[in-house]
Structures are given as C-alpha cells and as structure tokens.
Amino acid sequence: MKFSCLLLVLPTSSSLQLGNMFGGIKPPSMDVLGGSPMEKTKEELLAVISNTGNGKNADIDSQRQALRLVSFLESNAPVPDNLLRDPKTASALDGVWYLQYTAPSDIDIDDMPAWNPEDSTEGDAKIDTRKANIQGSVRAGGLTVDTSNRLTTQTIDVSNQRIENRVEQDFGIVTVGGSFRVSDTVANRAVVAFEEADIALNNGFVLKLGFLFSIIALLRGGIKDNGWLETTYIDDAMRIGRGNKGSLFVLTRDRDAVQP
Length: 260
Fold this sequence. Notes:
By secondary structure, the protein is an alpha+beta fold. The chain contains five helices and eleven strands, in the order ααααββββββββαβββ. The strands form two sheets. It has an eight-stranded antiparallel beta barrel. A hairpin with a 3-residue loop joins strand 9 and strand 10. Helix 2 runs antiparallel to helix 3. The longest helix has 17 residues. The two termini are 20 Å apart.
C-alpha cells in the first residue's frame, strides 16, 4: 500500500500567450475573464478524475489529461522550500486529506518531460523505487490495498512528524501509520518509516501487522525508512504528491470534491 510509500489542456490565442508565460505548459481551455488559470486548472482536474474510481477506471487519455493539468499546477505554483521545516508553513499540510486519485506518474506524453525525482533512493536508505504502476490502489511496505470507491484518508501531523493512511473496506478499516523525516536532499520530500499496520474487522477483532515492518527493517540492516512522498503542489483545498514508486496522488480537503 503506497501513499508515500504509503496521497495530485489547453486553446484560444489567449491560452497560447499564457502558455508562453508559464514555461510552455498551457492552462486548460477557458474564458480568460472567467477566472484565473490556476483555479480553472484545478476545476478541470477535479472534473477529469471524477467518476474514475480513485483512478482505477481512468483510461489512458484521462491519465494523460490529468498529468498535463497536474504539471501546469506544479510548474506555476511550486511549493516553498521550507514546507516541512517551518511550523507556520508546514501547517498547510496538517490534518485530514481525502485521497481522490492515484495513477502512475510516468505516462508517455510527447511534449511533456518525464518526472525524474532527485536522489530517488535517498542515499544509504536505499528506498525501493521500482515502479508500482497501480491505479486506484495504495501501497506501503509491500501491502497493497484497493482504494477504488473507498473512503481513503491521509492524516499528517507535522509537529510530531507522523503520518497515517486509512482505507475503509467492506470487511473493516485498514490503517497504516508511521513517522517521517525531512529528506536531506529534497526539501519537499517526507521520508517515511511505516511502523503500524492494523486491520480492524467489522466484528471488532483487530489484526496488528506492524511486526512486518520490523522484519523488513531487520532484513535491510536496521534501516527503517521504507518510502517517501513529495508534495509537489498545495493550497488550502488541494494537495498533489508523487511517491517513490512512481505514483501520482491527488488529495483534497473536501471529501466530496470529486464524483466517485
């Protein structure tokens, strides 16, 4: 299960001018007087990822369109370098986020460069960066959980450097949590060490599987870090992230921001 290791085209002469202003990535089709390019891009992104079952049912054209919109947001509103270090800035991350879309970051688009993360293995941490190529699912420490049409949340506590992912299933609730640290080389990257994995069944019985992470750490020579998540776009309503397994995540503060 992977949120972070485990959670975010374009015509008219006006949009062409905007594309030149913003590094060649064009905003979505819009009436320039009808709203800002950023707001229109966000609206279009939410529309594109709606009715895709958290990305599971998104066809290749929808995935490409979502990536174009995400790239526009990332390019024109980069996150501050102190996002994970300054308490006031970091407060933008705090609290509950609803996962709305998961899909691969690497899709062949001729006129858009591939996403190539810096220091992807995190040096001596030797983070696994093999591509997951999953849609509508999350993975952490080798555990994969289907999130299509499931209420899925990610809760972040920056001051205590904690993260928790929660997925509601028909049989109960799956929760995976752990600590994180700020990457030494990438300012907007949280390197995660998942430590807890609980499956709370509807009958009240709770399966505690956190020991699996301890075993994995032991096999890796005591290294507990097992994934990372970069926040590549954030505002008060939407957050976009990219994970070490090559997944793209779009999350919102509003549970009902997209149609499931």
